[in-house]
Each structure stands twice: as structure tokens, then as C-alpha cells.
Amino acid sequence: MQEAISKAATLVEAHAYIREFRGKVVVVKVGGSIMDQPEALGNLLGDVSFMHAVGMRPVVVHGGGKAINAAMSDAGLDAQFVQGRRYTDERTLAIAEHVLINDINAAAVGHLKEAGTPAMGLHSLGSCVVFAKRLTLRGEQNRRIDIGMVGEVEWVNTELLRAVLDAGSIPVIAPIARDPAGGKLNINADSVAGHVAGALRAEKFVLVSDTHGIRTDPDSEETASTLTRDATDGLIRDGVIDGGMLPKVEAALTALGGGCRKAHIVDGRIPHALLLEVYTEAGIGTEIVL
Ligand SMILES: Nc1ncnc2c1ncn2[C@@H]1O[C@H](COP(=O)(O)OP(=O)(O)O)[C@@H](O)[C@H]1O
Ligand SMILES: CC(=O)N[C@@H](CCC(=O)OP(=O)(O)O)C(=O)O
Fold this sequence. Notes:
It is a single chain. With 290 residues, the protein is an alpha/beta fold. It has one domain (29-226, 236-289): Carbamate kinase (3-Layer(aba) Sandwich), CATH 3.40.1160.10. Helix content is 41%, strand content 23%. Strand 3 and strand 4 form a beta hairpin. Helix 6 (189-199) packs parallel to helix 8 (245-258). The longest helix is centred in the middle third of the chain and has 25 residues, at 90-114. Ligand 2 is lined by residues 31-33, 63-65, 68, 85-86, 88, 96, 150, 175, 186-189, 244.
């Protein structure tokens, strides 16, 4: 009986948030890191379906870095990353596009549809909503680093995204962009998601990854519940935030700078991490604030 009563209390707690967030856009970035667990993607998209059912307007942006690594290894190619971005030559781009769109995007749309939720894949092999120019990274002494066919977002087609949302469907975006000449560029999925969240002025931007949040100490697993831009700058300088966390922090700041209200990094290995973040008082993970 006590268990049943506490379930009802959870529903009552969620009710206030359901009302607050009805009609609001939430951009959910699903990291490739959680796709190792066979059930994880389906479970997470089950939560996204729940959000849709209670009136939010979710937009999904997915990665797939680990699956691209595996496909590159099968093709005899070594994966190389610079500042969290994959060095991308023509063969790598073709592999990334295939894995991201034919495998992961199709699976994500399939999971949502199976859960009875309308969803539409938006990507470079169909209706693309992300347009980019070539990214130049800077290294020591401001030296230019060429990482090949990698893009930085210039423009997001919010009109098409809003049309899909208005039709009651969930846009599912893969991180390959088109450039002005009609070519294609590989983009880190966090960066795509940050620009989408900013351009849509989303209520929330949730990056779902394989860490409890952002570690603030190299010798401990402890993570911060909130971090300011200045604090993240310091942690990047000290090397505590590095690798795959760099584009996440940058994406959160891009989203907030564009007018998104809140940005969080949560652990997709925790069941229902997304629902805990959005619909309970406690929240989880790390919130980044300006
Ligand atoms: N300060 C930090 N706190 C947490 N994770 C960090 C930090 N710095 C680097 N990382 C790394 O970032 C990884 C998440 O990035 P990534 O592997 O690209 O995930 P995803 O596939 O979800 O985008 C973590 O697993 C961790 O190894
Ligand atoms: C340029 C670049 O790095 N693109 C990424 C796109 C996928 C991605 O970002 O996947 P995760 O979210 O799983 O890391 C890549 O090729 O891995």
C-alpha cells in the first residue's frame, strides 16, 4: 500500500511540471556513449515519448561516435579526435553518414513510432535542417588545425523544425550538415544540438551522456550540480574538462546564448534520467548557467 501511495505522490509532484512545460520545446541530445547498452536508446526514447504524450515538444539530436569508431575499424581506418571532433576525410564522412542515418537515425525514429509517437528523421539524405561551413580549430599559439570535412553550424532551418513540431511529430536530427555548395560536413552532435536549442529558444536543453555530470576534480568522481561559464573556463584551462566534454560545454553555452532557458548534462545510464531531470524537484546531473 505504502508503495502505491508513494507512486501517487510522484504523479502529483510531476503534475506541476507537466503543466509548467506543456507546449514548451525541449532539445534532447542523445550521446553515442549510452548506445553501448542494448536497451538504453529505446528506454531513453520511451521517456521522450512520455514527454510528448504530456504535451511537451521534444526535438531529438543524436550522436553515434562509438558506432562510427566500430565501422571505421571494420573498414581498416583509425579514428582520430582533436578537441572532441573526429578528423574526417572523404571515406570517414561516408562511413559516418551511413552509420548515423541508415542505422542510428532510422532506429531512433523506429523506437518512437513503436511507442506510438509520430517522429520524422531530418538529415542530409533527406530533409536537412542544419547548414554549416568548414570548422577551423585553433591549437597552441593560435595555430590552425585542419580536421578535414568537419563543419560548424551557420544556420538552422527553424521554420521546417517548427512545421514538424506543429504537425505533432518529433524531429530526429542526425549531425551531418550541408554546406552552401551542396556538399556535406560532419559535425559533433553536441554542437548541432546546442545550435538547434538556441535557434528554437528551447525551454530546456538536455545532453544525455555516460557521466553523472561534470567532474570538477581530476582525482575524484564527484560532479557539480551547477557550473557557471567562468567556472567551466577554469576547468578547461586546468584540463579537468577535456575530450568529449569540451563540445558539450560549448554547446550548452551556445544554447543559452541563443535564448534557450536551461541547459543540463545528465547520465543516460540512470533509468529515466530525462524524466527525473524535467519532472521532479530534485533534478540530476550538472546545470550550466551563464
Ligand atoms: N570534467 C569532466 N566530467 C565528466 N566527463 C568528462 C570530463 N572531461 C572529459 N570527460 C569525458 O567526456 C565523456 C563524454 O563525452 P563523449 O564520450 O563524447 O560522450 P557522448 O557520446 O555522450 O557525446 C565522458 O565519458 C568523459 O570521459
Ligand atoms: C565532427 C565529429 O566529431 N562528429 C561526430 C558526430 C557524431 C557524434 O558527435 O557522436 P557522439 O555524440 O556520440 O559523440 C563523430 O564523427 O563522431
